[in-house]
Design a protein that fits this description.
The protein is mainly alpha-helical. It has three helices and four strands. A two-stranded antiparallel ribbon has the order 1-2. The protein has a two-stranded antiparallel sheet with strand order 3-4. Mean pLDDT is about 75; it is low at about 105-110.
């Protein structure tokens, strides 16, 4: 079915398309994978043993954490348990990375890995 983008069904068609999709916070957007599918890559960098980050990225990690919390809260409010659970895993990974970076001292030589 083709929906006129200016017509009354345009927003409903958009909402219907988004309804079956998982939304997972990414540093530069969202994951649109359908909720029924498990993604082997969901924020994989956060758990990859070769992922390196420094304190200079703390603001980005914190922003992604805040965005992830908003998604979890909205998912729980709508009864979307799977979506909330997927993002709780991301939240735990972000917490681990942020804690590691905050615990390290000198910002000029701080490198945290996900391992």
């Amino acid at each position: 079915m083709i929906v006129d983008p200016a017509g009354p069904l345009a927003e409903a068609a958009w909402a219907n398309q988004r309804l079956g999709r998982a939304i997972q916070a990414l540093p530069n957007g969202f994951c649109g994978l359908p909720v029924q599918q498990a993604c082997p890559h969901a924020n994989a960098c956060l758990t990859c043993p070769t992922f390196l980050t420094t304190v200079e990225f703390l603001p980005r990690h914190r922003a992604q954490r805040d965005q992830t919390l908003r998604i979890i809260t909205a998912a729980e409010a709508c009864g979307q348990g799977r979506l909330a659970e997927m993002n709780r895993q991301v939240l735990a990974n972000l917490d681990r990375v942020i804690t590691s970076l905050q615990a390290d001292g000198d910002p000029t030589d701080t490198v945290a890995d996900a391992g």
